[in-house]
Amino acid sequence: MELQCKVQNYEWGKLGSESKVAQLFSNGSPNVTIDPEKPYAELWMGTHPNGPSLIIERGILLSEYLKDNHDAVGPDVNRKFGITVPFLLKVLSIRKALSIQAHPAKDHAEELNRLYPDMYKDPNHKPELAIALTPFEALCGFRPVNQIKKFLQDLPELAQILPEKSLNAFLNSEGTENSEKELKLVFHSLMTCDKQNITMSLQSLLSRLEKEDSSTQILLQYQLVQRLHKDFPGDVGCWAPYFMNYLKLSPGQAIFLKPNLPHAYISGDCVECMACSDNVVRAGLTPKHIDVLTLVDMLDYKSYTNEEMLFTPQLEDENSCIWRPPVPDFAVVRIKVQSGDSYNTIVRPSPSVIIITSGSGHACDTEPVQARPGVVLFLKASRQLTITPDEGSHIEAYQAICNV
To answer: What is the pTM of this model?
Structure first.
């Protein structure tokens, strides 16, 4: 069943047809006109109430269809999650950085929803998987401790706005547990620092780095901080690259964002899948509501390398690979079929949402559907889709499933 899906026009999205979201949305729905001045940030595919998908041929929401067709989700998903699609599939197109953020674990999400229902509107967790469609930049997880210490020693503009006692305690810390505890205090001091001090320190840093040679600028992340500062002048989040890993993903590379892991997407296009939630705790690089104290308290202060942040798929057969996170809510399959071939998808005990991202051809369960970029399909549990590219073409698709 083909779906009509919802676009979110958040202001950080890429503009007009530069956006992969806009390209897929307009190609999948030819009657749509793209506004070149408008941001097209996210395409939502699923049953989340903030952006529910519609079954085109029936003219009803997918969530309504499921209420009368329990077989569509399958018994395994029904037992675990009820009659619902427990994941949300998205495409993101990012022009400027999203907020520094993290997502609460399930029990913490329930607590935040209970205590602050106006701010945290649902009680679900929101682990996420992001797979790059184009070159993709992100900040993700705290850097190795020795890297953070080196930046603090090489950046007097940063060191001088931090309390001397907590700064020295971190610089002199030894052992993983002690370093994490002292890093938390330093990061708390930074995130709650006087805004005028943040503004002046950033201006001072950028003025100094502008005069440095290119190797020093590269070492001290000058171009990245300059870009962040241009979009968010005087924002404390501009200091984040000195604490968090800076990742440059190639198409097909992925990161998994477990609960409490700090992150901020910076630029590029990706397929993203998550538990069906919109729970975000933000602090910096955003005009939206921030909750610094909740974020600082909940964060995972472990150190990670760039390599540890990458999440690798498993090959299932010659046409598909799967990213299978350690959560039951979702997994993502990438399917590639070349001209002259035809592929039957693996039968899954869960419902699927599938988006065609490139190529052309046909996809068939009972009735054939034209497969072109932007076409989004819902496939019932335990059903199979036959994908056949046109002659001289191919089909690439991403399939979200439950990890049950």
So the answer is: 0.95
